[in-house]
Amino acid sequence: MKKPLGTTLLNCGLLLTTLACHAGATRIDRQDCGLSFETPRGWQQLDIAEAQLEPGVTCVIAFTRAGALAPAEVGQPEGWREIADYVLEVKPRSLRDAAKEIGLNLGTADKPQLAPAPPSASVAFKLTKAEQQALPHGELALAETEATKRPPSMVRNGTTGQLILVAGNEGRSVAFVHWRSASNAHSGQDAAALTSLFKSIAFDTDN
Fold first, then answer.
1. Which end of the chain is flanked by fewer CB atoms within 10 Å, N or C?
2. Percent of the chain residues topping a pLDDT of 70
3. pLDDT confidence of 206, banded at 50, 70, 90?
4. Are 179 and 159 in contact (CB under 8 A)?
5. Beta-bridge partners for 176
6. Pick from 159, 138, 146, 141: which is nearest to 195 by CA?
């Protein structure tokens, strides 16, 4: 039987509650992550209690699109990942290290640069947009790419490029790569929501 949207789920020690489902953005203070942010319009945050974290992960921030959450019995403690549309992991690593891990170089240049791909790579991208901006107690690096070489799987999926977002400082960071798809009706809206989310991040301290 389908339960109401605000239903609280408690199963296997996992508590899921719908925190934010508002017409406008809602500012959320995540003390466990050491940051705050504005929930994008049309999204809702999943409050995850006792979620199992991977080694090297400080906390997890999960979202679903408003109206998309249809609570069902969760069979495993990590079953919330089946509900979430987007999952962000805050890690105790520097902004530059996090950027490098997902293919961005943040050096002395004013803007992020793509790390060069090896000649044998099956996929290649060109940079179409790059910017850095200050955040409270941190920085944001943003890059958009267009695929110049795509394997058959990307062609079939309609994948055309990436939106790369990294926010952080010397002590913590959060990064995400959104794959743009011409065949996904949500791709453009989700890219705008993710950009708005990352631009709203404020870190508690520099470390």
1. N
2. 79
3. low
4. yes
5. 165
6. 141
CA distance 75 to 12: 7
Query: What pLDDT, in 10s, does the model give residues 95-138?
Result: 999 999 998 999 766 788 888 877 777 888 899 999 999 999 99
Cα dihedral 166→59→16→69 (10° resolution): 10
CA nearest 194: which of 32, 37, 83? 37
Q: What sign for the dihedral angle of Cα 38, 61, 142, 97? A: positive
pTM, full prediction: 0.80
Amino acid 135: pLDDT: 97
In sequence order, what E strands does the chain have? 9-11, 14-18, 26-30, 35-39, 43-49, 59-65, 86-91, 104-105, 113-114, 124-135, 138-149, 159-168, 173-181, 202-203
Taking residue 145's Cβ as centre, other Cβ atoms within 10 Å add up to: 22
